[in-house]
Amino acid sequence: MSEARDRPEVVVLRIGHRPFRDKRVTTHVGLTARAFGASGIVIADFKDKAVERSIEKIVRVWGGDFWVRSGDSWREVVEEWKKRGKTVVHLTMYGKSLQGALSELRGKDLMVVVGSEKVPREVYEVADFNVAIGNQPHSEVAALAVFLDRLFEGKELHMEFKGGKMRVIPSERGKRVEKIRIGGA
Amino acid sequence: MSEARDRPEVVVLRIGHRPFRDKRVTTHVGLTARAFGASGIVIADFKDKAVERSIEKIVRVWGGDFWVRSGDSWREVVEEWKKRGKTVVHLTMYGKSLQGALSELRGKDLMVVVGSEKVPREVYEVADFNVAIGNQPHSEVAALAVFLDRLFEGKELHMEFKGGKMRVIPSERGKRVEKIRIGGA
To answer: Could you tell me the pTM of the whole model?
Structure first.
C-alpha cells in the first residue's frame, strides 16, 4: 500500500457486472480505480477471471499494489464495510451534488459503489451518501474518475506506483517509456 | 447550442472504434462528452448506427443539442479542423501533464482526440497538444471526463440541457425524475 499510505483507504465496489456485455467497461472501471488512487476493487455477484486477469496484468507491469476480487455478494461486502464503521458512497445521476458532499467525505475510508444501468433500490438505501456527478446519464467510468479526482484534489495523478516494470517519461510527441531494472530504479 | 453558448466549441473525435468490442465503451465516450459539455462527437473510420442511435436516444430524452456522427476518416476530420485554425488535443498516457496544458487550452475551440488501445503514431504528430491525464493506463472515458471537468472547472455539471422530456430532481435517497410537458417547463 506504499503509494497510498498518506491517504485514506478507498475501495470500489462494482455492481451489476454482466460477464459478456460489461467485460470492457468493468475493466475500465478497475483501471480507473487504480490510476485515480483507490486501493482495490470488488466486482460483485459474478466471478470474472478474465477481468481480474486484465487488471492484474496492468498492476504487474505498471506497479503499485492495487487488488481485485470478483464474485462476492454486494450486500455482504457493504454490510462488512459498514460493520467496521466505515462510509459507503453510491455514485448515481439521481443523488445530491458532488460539491456539497465532498467536504463530508474527504479524509474518510470510503467504499465507492458504481453500478451499470439497473441498480437495485436497496443500494440507494444502504448507502450513506448518494452522490451525483452531474444529473445527466453518462458512464460509471466517468463518474468514478471525476469523483476520485475531486476527492483527492488532483494529487492522485502524481502518485508513484512502486515495483512496476515500466514507467512513462512524459513527452510532447509520442511514447517514451522507461524499462525499470529489477532491484533498481 | 443554447446550453453551450457561453463556452468555446469542444468536439470529441473517437478513433480506433471497433464495432463489436467497443460498442459500449464508445457509447460511454459519447455520453460523457455530452454530459461534460462537448458539442458533439465524431466516431472515426467505422459507421456505427447502433452507437449513434444509443447516444441520440439519450439526447431526445434528456435534452440539449449534442450531435453524433460516425464513419468519417479521422485524418480528414483533423485536417478540416486544423484548416480552420483550431486546436487539436490528444489525450494519452504518454503526453505532458494536464495541469501544465490547461492554461493554454482554456477558451479555445478544441478537438479532443481519444483513442482505444492502439493509436497511430501520426496522431501524436498532428496533435497540437498530447496531454496525459496521469501517466498510468486507464480509460479513454475517464481521461475525457477528467479533462473536460478540469477544462470547464466543474461548471459543466450545472449546465442546463434544454428541450428534454425528463429532468432529475437531485435527492438523498433514490430516483426522483420530473417529466417535462411539451411547451412547458
So the answer is: 0.95
